[in-house]
Amino acid sequence: GFLTREERRRLEGLRSPYNKFWVPCAWFGALAGQARREGRVRDDCALKLLMEELNRFRAHCSLLFHYDWISVPLVYTQVVTIAVYTFFLTCLIGRQFLDPAQGYAGHELDLGVPVFTLLQFPPYVGWLKV
């Protein structure tokens, strides 16, 4: 609904190996210049503001295109996965209480499973999968 049928036909007719997000921006720039010459845009300051907003929009489109174009290397996801699982394996061993049969002072309660570590596990793994 943003383009006329003629504009859509012309946009689809352009052959480019890259994304064509910049073409409507170029059309807008040309139309803004024509509107200024015809007096629809009152002064040069208004035209300057229009063009600055267009450039900001185009920069954001370009940034979005770069995020899509350059993917995160697979090694980063592998390193993060190994780090998360290693952290929790270490926590399962390191956060267990001491054996109360040994008679350590202040350690009368022995829980075989570190409950809070297990409660931390689902959010971290869920975050990792996202």
From TrEMBL:
Membrane as UniProt keyword: yes
Name of the coding gene: Best2_0
Subcellular location: Cell membrane; Membrane
Membrane topology per record: Multi-pass membrane protein
One Pfam family linked to the record: Bestrophin
This protein's record includes keyword Kinase: no
Task of the protein: Forms chloride channels.
Family: Belongs to the anion channel-forming bestrophin (TC 1.A.46) family. Calcium-sensitive chloride channel subfamily.
Reaction(s) catalysed by this chain's protein: chloride(in) = chloride(out)
Coarse class of the protein's main subcellular location: membrane
Keywords: Cell membrane, Chloride, Chloride channel, Ion channel, Ion transport, Membrane, Transmembrane, Transmembrane helix, Transport
The protein, known as: Bestrophin homolog
GO molecular function terms attached to this record: chloride channel activity
Matches recorded under InterPro entries: Bestrophin, Bestrophin-like
Sequence intervals crossing the membrane: 74-94
GO CC terms in record: chloride channel complex; plasma membrane
